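R.M. (postdoc): so does anyone remember the format we settled on? I'll just put the structure tokens first.
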């Protein structure tokens, strides 16, 4: 995994936790999430960054900044898939859920990467978080009772890419 990897923290902020909110939609099916991930990967490889960000959450443009030139030319390999359902946090807020994919590949400069992409149901359509998949992003979830998370060096855990 790249030493400069990014970590995205997935948490829903429902009215700052003042009033319990209705849960977000459940995680999409693995099949639907995989189809959406394929669209994200195709857009990245084609360097169609407008399309890539249409398929993504609102942070796509920020994630992409400065990394357009190293977009991969080959599809990554999906080495792990896990389903995460939304979780109610302390104070009534909800932590987001979705289907988390671990990708292994080589960027446009020939450097290997390991990234996580989360595909989630945004209510009307599926979206991807960490859609700029070639930059080595990790996605973290908050669990029940969590008040927040410190930002710092992520614990990369065991490498999943060869």
């Amino acid at each position: 995994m790249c030493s400069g990897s990014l970590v995205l923290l997935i948490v829903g902020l429902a009215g700052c936790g003042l009033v319990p909110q209705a849960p977000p939609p459940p995680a999409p099916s693995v099949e639907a999430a995989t189809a959406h991930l394929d669209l994200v990967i195709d857009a990245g490889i084609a360097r169609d960054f407008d399309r890539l960000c249409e398929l993504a959450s609102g942070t796509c443009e920020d994630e992409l900044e400065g990394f357009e030139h190293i977009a991969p030319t080959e599809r990554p390999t999906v080495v792990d898939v896990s389903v995460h359902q939304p979780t109610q946090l302390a104070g009534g807020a909800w932590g987001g859920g979705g289907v988390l994919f671990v990708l292994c590949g080589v960027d446009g400069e020939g450097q290997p990467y390991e990234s996580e992409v989360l595909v989630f149901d945004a209510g009307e359509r599926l979206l991807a978080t960490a859609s700029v998949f070639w930059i080595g992003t990790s996605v973290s979830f908050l669990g029940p009772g969590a008040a927040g998370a410190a930002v710092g060096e992520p614990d990369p855990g065991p490498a999943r890419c060869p």
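R.M.: ...and that's the designed sequence above, right after the tokens. Also worth knowing: The longest strand covers residues 112-121. The CA atoms of residues 39 and 46 lie 10 Å apart.
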